[in-house]
Specification:
The chain is of the alpha+beta class and about 300 residues long. It folds into 2 domains: about 150 residues, 2-Layer Sandwich (Alpha-Beta Plaits); about 150 residues, 2-Layer Sandwich (Alpha-Beta Plaits). The chain is about 20% helix and about 35% strand.
Length: about 300
């Protein structure tokens, strides 16, 4: 298969089941919405070492938020459901609660398997920071919320947040002739999915330059560089997956609430990437189908 003269390899990406929360943060204006979003989702690229994979889903206009202020949807993905409460509490408590003018609400609306959704305490735990001066908000919202006194005024937070079943690790690879064209294609891919709901691209700017494989020659590492896709090693190793003229590879990774949203994001991203001159082909990362439950074939997604 070719699109715009770019080869689409007959392969698939391999993704994994995950649990996630989706949190709405609002603030006085867009400046503080963006500040809270950036800080709260920081150090959230990969669960190999980060406490979660975190990212910005979409920005929300004031007429679509509970307190009629600008907002942003943040998503946090984790492999172990018993760790989600700690992840959400730490990030919201340390980064949203401390940020000027913010408020915080649950925003989970869809998930892969609604029967496996569960709840965690958000405001129900954060309220204790109020040291007895916290107050339950009555009748203002269609859910239980708390106001906690702070030096600026009051922090408003929903009492309970939901956790859903989702997918982590949907991906595709952009293989190009040089760094400039490959990076431009990756940036175009990210821009193409910025308005897709319920999906994040957790790596810096949504782009991965250091794709990894499972395991390492060093016993203390559980992941290491994906040498078959490193251009500098093409002539040095026998198992290189790169051809002559393949001089840069970027990976785009998606975490999402459902299979449909993962496939939609992959399709939009690939279609945007192949419009950039200098892209040789599009591929995807997998482990031979042996590890991830979810497998998405590029040809099927794009057909």
């Amino acid at each position: 298969m070719e699109i715009n003269g770019v080869e689409i390899e007959d392969t698939f990406c391999e993704a994994f089941g995950s649990v996630f929360s989706r949190i709405l943060v609002t603030a006085k204006n867009e400046k503080w919405v963006k500040t809270a979003a950036q800080i709260t989702t920081g150090y959230g690229t990969s669960t190999i070492h980060c406490d979660a994979e975190a990212g910005i889903d979409i920005f929300i206009p004031p007429d679509q938020t509970p307190d009629n202020r600008p907002g942003v949807m943040l998503m946090f993905f984790k492999n172990k459901k018993e760790e989600m409460s700690r992840v959400v509490m730490n990030r919201i408590g340390q980064c949203v609660f401390t940020c000027p003018t913010t408020a915080c609400f649950d925003a989970l609306n869809v998930s892969l398997d609604p029967t496996k959704e569960f709840e965690i305490k958000l405001g129900a735990n954060l309220k204790f920071f109020g040291d007895g001066f916290q107050e339950k908000i009555e009748e203002k919202f269609p859910f239980e919320a708390w106001k906690i006194p702070v030096m600026e005024g009051e922090f408003i937070v929903q009492s309970i947040a939901k956790v859903g079943k989702g997918i982590a690790g949907g991906n595709f690879l952009i293989i190009g002739k040089d760094q400039d064209s490959s990076l431009e294609a990756a940036e175009k891919a990210i821009d193409a999915v910025k308005d897709v709901h319920n999906v994040i691209t957790p790596f810096p700017g949504g782009i991965v330059r250091s794709g990894s494989k499972v395991g390492s020659k060093y016993s203390f590492l559980n992941a290491s560089t994906n040498e078959p896709l490193c251009p500098s090693l093409r002539e040095k190793i026998e198992n290189s997956q790169l051809r002559e003229g393949d001089n840069c590879v970027y990976e785009i990774i998606f975490d999402g609430a459902t299979e449909e949203v993962i496939k939609k994001a992959m399709k939009l991203g690939i279609e945007a990437a192949v419009k950039v001159p200098g892209i040789n082909r599009i591929s995807a990362g997998n482990y031979g189908g042996n590890l991830g439950k979810f497998q998405y074939k590029l040809h099927e997604i794009l057909s």
